[in-house]
Write a structure and sequence with these properties.
By secondary structure, the protein is mostly helical. The chain has helices at about 20-45, 55-60, 65-75, 80-85, 90-95, 105-115, 120, and strands at about 5-10, 10-15.
Length: about 120
């Protein structure tokens, strides 16, 4: 790689490289960033951060009820989740069907039972 160094007051200020070399440097920098992002993600997983399957994300983005999506992802029945959240199964069913809106306390209990944040179960 040929590099032209331009100095200002005796100190290097600019490095001029052929465009082809510039493109290779950009590609390598992007690859390094990808590797660092991957390493950071794997460290977060090792520290206990949960990976969320694409099916969960897409279902919520497509408008499915987030409580139902998370409940099914966790492998819980309505009865199991209702018990864990301290509410009745019919009440949970109505929340999942969009026929009722839960109080903040109820939604917090459901979120806690699902091990997600309150924001994760709020409808879009």
């Amino acid at each position: 790689m040929s590099v032209q160094i331009i100095k200002r007051e005796g100190e290097p200020e600019w490095a001029v490289v052929p465009y082809r070399d510039y493109l290779r440097l950009i590609e390598k920098a992007e690859m390094l960033q990808d590797i660092q992002d991957y390493d950071a993600a794997m460290e977060a997983v090792a520290q206990g951060e949960e990976l969320i399957p694409a099916e969960v994300v897409y279902a919520i983005l497509e408008g499915d009820n987030p409580i139902r999506v998370w409940r099914e992802h966790r492998g819980l029945t309505q009865h199991q989740l209702a018990q864990a959240a301290g509410i009745s199964t019919p009440y949970l069913s109505q929340l999942e069907a969009g026929k009722r809106r839960g109080s903040t306390a109820v939604l917090r209990a459901i979120a806690q039972a699902l091990a997600v944040t309150l924001e994760d179960i709020l409808p879009q």
